[in-house]
Amino acid sequence: MDFKRVYYASKTYYILAVVAVVLLIFTTVMAYNQVMRMQKSAEMVTHSVHIYNHLNMLTAHYTQADSEAFKKRLINPENSKFSIENYQAEGRAILDSLAVLVHANATQTDRLNKLETKFQKLYKQLKALDNTLPGNDTLNFNIQKTLIGATLFEIRQIKNSMLEEEQTLMAQRKVSYASSKSLAPLILLSVALIALTVFVLAFIKISRNKTRIRQSENFLKNVLGTTDNVINFYTPLYNNKQEITDFKINYANACNRDYFGLEPDDMIGKTVLTVFPTLKDSPNFNKLVSCFVSKEKVKFQSKLFMNNSLMWFETLVTPLSEGILVTARNTTAEEEAKAVQISLKKRLENQNLKLLDNRALLSNIFKSISHIVMHLKSIRDADGKIKDFLILFVNDRINPVTGEIPEDLKNKTVSAVYPEIFKSHVYNHLVQAIETNKTITYNVPYTKNNKTHWFSATAIKLGDGVTITLRETTEEKEKSDELTKLNEQLVIRNSILTDAESIAKIGSFLWYVDSDNTELSQNFYNILEVNPSTYQPTLKNFRNFVHPDDLALYDEKVALSVTGRVSNEYIYRIITNSGTVKYVKSNAQFIEKNGTKFIIGVVQDVTATIKADEELRKSNLELRQINAELDSFNRAASHDLQEPLRKIQLFISRIEDLETQKLSERTRVYFDKVKKAAARMQGLINNLLTYSRIDSSQSDLEPVNLNVVLDKVLEDLAPDIKEAQATVQVSKLPEIRGVFFQMEQLFSNLISNAIKYRRLTETLQITVAAQRVSNTEIPEDLRLHNTSYYKILVKDNGIGFKAQYADKIFEVFQRLHQKNEYSGTGIGLAICKKIVENHQGYIYAVGEEGVGSQFCIYIPIY
């Protein structure tokens, strides 16, 4: 270790001074505490003496009650009341004083409380004695005296206990006081010796520092004499208003002779404006004044014409306690080098004109971008490894991005403010920039309000820290991603455009209005059935292809596009180069840009579409005829088909009533099958009619309270519910726009299904509930378009079904069980689906075999 360097270092003496002051303060505090302990011990002894005195006063007080003289005064009718009241007041005062003295001692306080009780008892006995005259009732008088004596004995016992306690405390306090009194002189002597030692050491240090200051002054004079800078020291001169009017030159080095031709000795004692008259009324003189007044350094450039040449100086003005120190550095060589550099720059400018033009736009963009600038200081562990950063600076541009106030971030650690950087690559980039002293550039995302912002960051080492510049590139990244996507899409579109035009029979064109030049796509030529190499694409030439009967329409639309500058879509006929008549649909748009007028558009061969429309019209006529036939069938099913069925059921009923007993066992079995088949046929026809009569139009929609609908359904199904011993739980249902009897049919079918397909081993539980949902809460695969819906659930714990049959159960005549297992026609759920779709809703089922089923219905809210 370099002990000599440590010895001469000022930091060493600062540390020793701090240690000496701390030691002196410590010993002084010890002495003060010792004196305070001695004072406290003395106070405690005095406190015990006060208690002794009050106990003695208390003894004298209660002793009076035992004296014959007091008793004689007591039995004197003229002054007994006065004596007892004064006596009691005297005792109360002594007890109150004792209570104040012993309040910190719980044991003595408890004893004093007992003592007060005894004195109250004594006063009562004295009053009783006062009311008993010895001549009239000698026996009672003597009894009262005996009781007073017993009470006085108890008071005496308690007082003696308190006295013994105080004697013990007095002994302890005397010992403590004696100890404190013996230590106090030693501690005071120690404080004095330490103070003397600090004084001697300080004196030695001051003496040595004075010697070193003299040496430093001589060294400074040598430095000032050999430096290349002009160094002068000025003190201010004031007028009557205490305003600085000039400066007195107190010191000037030899450089004044070299640069200005002025002798330093001749300058000392003169004023600045006398030696340098060019400073009068100059801004540089005001800077000298400002430096001394504000006590802040001032730096400025100045130029002087000296010795027939122009000289440049960089002046630094430093405020001192009594004046200002002016240091002027000759920068003439640097300025001349700058002039040469400017000359070279001008020659380079001519060569870089194109480069500057290209950079102009980029420069303007950079000027319009606001950057976030942060400076972080490294926090290292014992091994010198960076473990965290301290935020020393951040500019105001961070507020619009994160909402944070720069002042609130300063002097906080990065781990407390941005802990996420330690989990990403950002921390490694910052460490790399500091450890390698290289500029690191990286991209970093920042998420705010569920939106990700991207920043381009540059990290540059500064000291033992890093300066980070963040530039938001979110828009650039989005545009870049969008451009990449658009380029990909453009490649795909260009690749399929030709095929698409050919498949769709579309051709595109671009017509320049003023020059009548036209550009056509390949498929346009194909539609016209012409060769591009032999056909001149102009509006006039194309007009020759237009069918004569459609020329008026064509000319009208073209004129409207040019003069009205509007988009037009119309259909007309053309006659191709081979003589084929085609229908084409044209759509054009007028555009004017940079003084150029042109029309862009497409032409589609819609000949097949026109023919298809004609075929569709014929198909619609046939469909109307088929619908009429279906209506006839519905009427036949309603009347003609049911008439023979009703007769069959009638004859079955009569045979059952009259001939059942005459039938054999086998014949009864066949008869039951016929009866069930007729009933099933009746149900099938009814369900088919119900299914066919559900109209998809919404003209008859009206407000329907689903609570009323469900109550009616439950009332109709009450016998079946009771027979199945089922429980139905219903929450409040909404009011919708619908058809009452259809919603009744919907709930009836769903609840009937739940009863039919129940498990016999468990009690059937049916739940009907509803809630309002937005379309964002509905699964995307349903593709519902209304803003909000009512979601209605009908759930049971029946036999359920397998997941693969979730769609099949809604088809007509689809059954998952045999007819002999469960009755039914297989149309009930198909009717439910048609009813829901008629209300512009959706229904689906979720089931698990052996667990139960759940039907979910979405009805739109209008």
TrEMBL record:
Keyword match Transferase: yes
Keyword Lyase included in the entry's annotation: no
CDD domains per record: HisKA, PAS
The protein's enzyme class: transferase
Listed PROSITE patterns: HIS_KIN, PAC
Transmembrane segments: 12-32, 183-204
Keywords, alphabetical: ATP-binding, Coiled coil, Kinase, Membrane, Nucleotide-binding, Phosphoprotein, Transferase, Transmembrane, Transmembrane helix
EC number: 2.7.13.3
Domain of life: Bacteria
Name the record gives this protein: histidine kinase
Organism: Bizionia sediminis
